[in-house]
Design brief:
Layout (H helix, E strand, L loop, with lengths): L12 E2 L1 E3 L2 H9 L5 E3 L1 H7 L10 H14 L4 E4 L8 H13 L4 E5 L1 E4 L2 E4 L2 H14 L4 E5 L10 H14 L4 E3 L6 H10 L4 E4 L7 H7 L3 E3 L3 H20 L12
Parallel strand pairs: 1-11, 2-3, 3-4, 4-5, 5-8, 8-9, 9-10, 10-11
Antiparallel strand pairs: 6-7
Length: 253
């Protein structure tokens, strides 16, 4: 089943968000059908803040290492595109496609001096149309940050942007931060694109999401963050106990 078809099944596509070759291999062994990179997790792994702090070349290197160890479909979080000009973003997408990537996330916001703000919807839609025309084989999952930024009338603005992006050729709509069932159902019903939601503490279970019309479920960087907490806990226990016994406790559980 190709990547696009995975978004049109009777149940949502649960995508494993990975950050290196090792996490990609584990996701494949766990039975996932597709992978997505987490920009925040990769940035953290490399010591950067999220928001295009790393270079595109660094991102591309990580992507090529992931593709070297797994044949699962891979979608890459391209953030705002890693380029000020649309032509540069197109070049970046072509490089990812040559590396074996089948989809990207691109967002309608930018981080400037640590502050994220929404782009003008119509300006972004025009850029999107250019990307679609230049990269027809790539699944473009459009992330809108209306809920993430907690803007006023977030549902209405998201519906407007989703319908606009659909009209300009988008393949999917990604709305991180949306968790209320009525909002999720409205987006799934009124926007023709497959709806992608993201792991949040109050996100409904997968069965409920399926009944609401969700087609794709992402993890964001939460799995990576949880693993870092476990790593810190383990290292602190070794330091406190002056022993490696805790490292091997899992063998007896």
């Amino acid at each position: 089943m190709d990547f696009n078809a995975l978004h049109h099944q009777n149940h949502p596509l649960l995508i494993a968000n990975v950050w290196d070759a090792s996490s990609a291999l584990i996701a494949q062994q766990a039975g996932y059908h597709a992978l997505g990179t987490s920009s925040a997790a990769i940035a953290a792994m490399l010591g950067y803040e999220d928001g295009e702090g790393m270079s595109f070349d660094e991102l591309l290197f990580i992507v090529t290492r992931i593709k070297a160890v797994t044949s699962l479909p891979l979608s890459v979080d391209l953030e705002s595109g890693y380029g000020d000009m649309t032509s540069r973003i197109i070049e970046n997408i072509h490089l990812l496609a040559r590396a074996g990537v089948v989809g990207i996330n691109i967002e309608d916001s930018h981080v400037v001096n640590g502050v994220r703000s929404l782009d003008d919807a119509h300006t972004f839609a025009s850029k999107l149309q250019e990307l679609i025309a230049a990269c027809p084989s790539i699944f473009l999952n459009i992330r809108t940050d209306t809920f993430l930024l907690n803007i006023e009338d977030a549902l209405e603005e998201t519906l407007s942007r989703g319908q606009l992006y659909a009209a300009h050729g988008a393949n999917g709509l990604f709305v991180p931060g949306v968790t209320q069932p009525d909002s999720i159902a409205a987006l799934a019903h009124h926007v023709t694109l497959p709806l992608n939601v993201m792991c949040m503490p109050t996100l409904p279970d997968f069965g409920t999401l399926a009944s609401l019309g969700v087609r794709r479920i992402s993890m964001g960087n939460f799995i990576h963050a949880a693993m870092q907490d476990r790593l810190k806990e383990s290292l602190c226990k070794i330091q406190a106990s002056q022993s490696f016994s805790d490292v091997f406790n899992y063998e007896n559980n």
